[in-house]
Fold these 2 entries.
Entry 1:
Amino acid sequence: MRMKVGVLGATGAVGQRFIQLLAEHPWFELAALTASERSAGKKYGEIAKWRLDVPLPDKVKDLKVLPTSPEKVDADIVFSALPASIAKDVEPEFAKAGFVVASNASAYRMESDVPLMIPEVNPDHLGLVEVQKKNRHWDGCIITNPNCSVIAMALSLKPLMKFGIKGVHVATMQAVSGAGYEGVSSMAILDNVIPYIAKEEEKMEIEAQKILGEFDGAKVKNADFAVSASCNRVPVIDGHTEAIWASLCDNPSLSEVRDAFAKFKCDEVKGLPTAPEKAIIVHDAEDRPQPRLDRNAGKGMSVSVGRIMEYADGVKYIAMGHNTIRGAAGASILNAELFCKTYKR
Ligand SMILES: NC(=O)c1ccc[n+]([C@@H]2O[C@H](COP(=O)([O-])OP(=O)(O)OC[C@H]3O[C@@H](n4cnc5c(N)ncnc54)[C@H](OP(=O)(O)O)[C@@H]3O)[C@@H](O)[C@H]2O)c1
């Protein structure tokens, strides 16, 4: 049976990606779109300034945009693409009302009873849903995906965990779509690099340890390494590129590291419609990965790595992922698919 789903914040940069990815989804039927009071009551096709390089799906053009309130939404799962400040109040209202909330927003990511998921990396953390329901007495739940830059980094660090990660340094080159449609003015970003993204370094420095931590059935024990991040906005539309330096306890050869990336797979995501064939694609060409060439790998769900080189007591490499697909909408949809598979919905 197909499940009814809604998108909260459907008019924004991430909201539009949700609509693109859900329009033809084999399990989910797009039944409700919400936005702010500014947009509510209008037809989606009239109000949303569609800015993706794929056509606005016909079946959503005439859907009426609803206010973002649980009583107005008829669905089982809602995908949240709301600003964190709004998500903080709204997401619990939906969870209390029985919805599964698959959220992109940062408001609940670091709460100890909220799973922060990358299905190929920590599928078992979904068990936190039971802890959350018990703690909060909600009929529904909140499941989150990481910040868009953290996803590419944490996914690429997972295969390196077997070598023992001592510490990570990362410098990001982040696309403008990561700031939302109204985020960065063209006069500020064209011909420029901006070495500041509000609250980004803080998220980069704490989220990966939770994702790569161990779940004991009651809580997650964070992975024990520090991350130091420097985050930069660059004039790229989609695709975050990251230079990563990982210090390792063991001393693997470069070919062992390459192999760990290339052979990485996770059986739990088998059969999930949004899971790419390969979560990590390794490039050997010396000038890859690049956002324009590689962001759509695996329909935007694969993270590309390359430039694997020796570094002090570890390895350095470049990782690149599509920030509004793998880093946002696609990530939430994959979380919801894992939820449905696990709980046989
Ligand atoms: N962009 C990325 O790459 C990315 C990646 C990962 C996570 N995220 C996170 O995803 C969320 C959405 O980001 P975005 O880039 O898509 O932002 P955005 O383009 O600014 O879109 C925000 C959406 O939220 C709606 N909204 C704003 N205020 C609202 C309110 N008071 N009540 C109900 N709806 C409201 C807007 O509706 P109106 O059109 O009516 O204003 C719009 O649909 C954020 O939490 C962001 O941090 C973004």
Note: Residues 3-147+328-342 form a domain with the Rossmann fold fold (CATH 3.40.50.720).
Entry 2:
Amino acid sequence: MSKSAYFMQECGTCGRNLRVRISYLGKQVVCQHCKSQFRATDSIDKGDSPVKPASAALKRADELLAAADAIKNRPR
Ligand SMILES: [Zn+2]
């Protein structure tokens, strides 16, 4: 499990870009700037889509982690 996998998400309250751990996808996180709470979601999920089941978020996180590992382990 990589510890350095992040994605960028814009805070809905203060509008700043935050670095959120991929492992926090689908969970409540706190903006480090304005301390407001929001749900960590990948940017492609923006919009008025209904709440996804947690398993979908976990699957997405697994895909992102797999991609990060693939980049890290890529032979030169
Ligand atoms: Zn904020």
Note: Residues 11, 13-14, 16, 31, 33-34, 36 surround zinc ion (CB under 6 Å).
